[in-house]
Amino acid sequence: MVAGEASGDLLGGHLIAALKAKRPGLRFSGIGGPLMQVHGFETYFPMEKLSVRGYVEVLRHYREIMDIRKRLASLLLEQRPALFVGVDAPDFNLDLERQLKQAGIPAIQYVSPTIWAWRAWRLRRIARSVTHVLALFPFEPPLYEKAGVPVTYVGHPLADVIPYDIPKAEARAQLRLPTNKLVIALLPGSRRSELEYMAELFVKTARRFYEEVKDVHFVCPTASRGTRDMLEAALRHHAGMELPLTLLFGHSHEALAAADLALVASGTASLEAALFKVPMIVTYKMSPMTWLLMRRMLYMPYVGLPNILAGEFLVSEFIQDKANPGALASALIDLLHDAPRRRLQIERFREIHATLRQNTAEKAAVAVLSVLERARA
After folding, report:
1. Is the pLDDT of residue 216 over 90?
2. Do 26 and 174 have their domain in common?
3. Distance of alpha carbon 227 from alpha carbon 190, whole angstroms
4. 84 beta partners
5. What CATH code is carried by the domain that includes residue 76?
């Protein structure tokens, strides 16, 4: 198995637990994080080496990443595992899967590449590379079925883990947040490469909002010591130290459970916010070169997962040049004062939650074992 970042580690950990419950003798190795390792997973390289996002950012680490893939491919071709599961990280995993599949080792891609948002040409590459796809979203299987790629819809594990009804008061008490103030969750991303573009933006936005709305408290979970340092530096440089702000190590779910509104970086965090039924604004910034390359391949009008799942602009998006502190602060203030819009978001978020709750780990484990049995037969 190969997982390239925290969200993949979560998926991988759940899958390993479900597979071990059915087949206790199975052994797992490759690249994974602490949530996979707690189930006995043996990792050959640090998962953090793969946690890079964006074309320009990947180019900086290209040689190291390619060297890891080459060494891992050589190791796996020598070991000949019964099955390979690539957990997300398609830019790393698809070529590795193709090599293994050609050598007669079944390869499963767990989490579809974003063929539904951009780079639809990837379908041909996926068909050459994988034996089976495990899809998290209900609109993905028809695309694969049309292309003749075996696929199973398994739902999203976050929808299984996150409760339908959120105990907000409990979460605030746990985080020692004020009970009588507006609480806004700030989720600027989990990677250092993201914080390079998002830390300053989120701090300045919070400061602008606080100038207009004093009765507020911000809460911001950080994924690592490095990302926390970057946020603290942005707070010092942009007069954010006086903000009523609680910085956390981890605890993003608790922060969302406690929040009335959220400002969220596009990606898995926006789905988490939707599952926690938090009205939100979605934003994202990246290197100008990465954006120039990426925007040419976009064919959907929105990029945030809540909007893609809803099939409409349910949540306001501010991407790249539109992502500035004034626009984001104004959007948050507008959302605060628009109760019908907040209620609509919450209602649609509940529908999304019901659709995605599929007992994902169990479904994924059944599909994986089915591929394994067919390969052995």
Report:
1. yes
2. no
3. 7
4. 107
5. 3.40.50.2000
β-sheet bridge partners, residue 134: 110, 152
70 and 148 assigned to the same domain: yes
Say yes or no: 183 and 83 in one domain.
no
Cα–Cα distance, 33 to 48 (Å, whole number)? 8
Classify residue 163: in a domain, yes or no.
no
Comparing 299 with 50, the larger pLDDT belongs to: 50
Q: Measured at the alpha carbon of residue 329, what is the angle toward residues 188 and 187, in degrees to the nearest 5? A: 15
Q: How many structural domains compose the chain?
A: 2
Beta bridge partners of 31: 2
Within a domain: residue 160? no
Structure confidence at residue 58 (pLDDT): 55
Structure tokens at 199: 């830390």
CA dihedral 127, 132, 136, 140 (to 10 degrees): 40
Strand order in the sheet with 182-187: 245-249, 216-222, 182-187, 261-265, 280-284, 316-319
Q: What is the mean pLDDT of residues 12-39?
A: 96
Confidence tier at 232 by pLDDT (50, 70, 90) = confident
Confidence at residue 51, expressed as pLDDT on a 0 to 100 scale: 62
Contact 223, 199 (CB under 8 A): no
- Overall average pLDDT of the 80-106 stretch: 95
Nearest by Cα to 309 from 150, 137, 114: 137
- Residue at 132 is within a domain: yes
Contacts by residues 122-128 (CB-CB < 8 Å, ≥ 24 positions apart): 122/90, 122/94, 123/147, 123/149, 125/94, 125/98, 126/94, 128/98, 128/101
Give residue 291's pLDDT.
60
> Any idea what the Cα angle at residue 121 is, between residues 119 and 126, rounded to 5°?
100
The highest-confidence range among 104-118, 123-137, 332-346, by mean pLDDT, is: 332-346
**10 is written with which tokens?**
């979560």
- Cite the beta strand spans of 233-295 per DSSP E: 245-249, 261-265, 280-284
Residue 253's domain comprises: 168-356
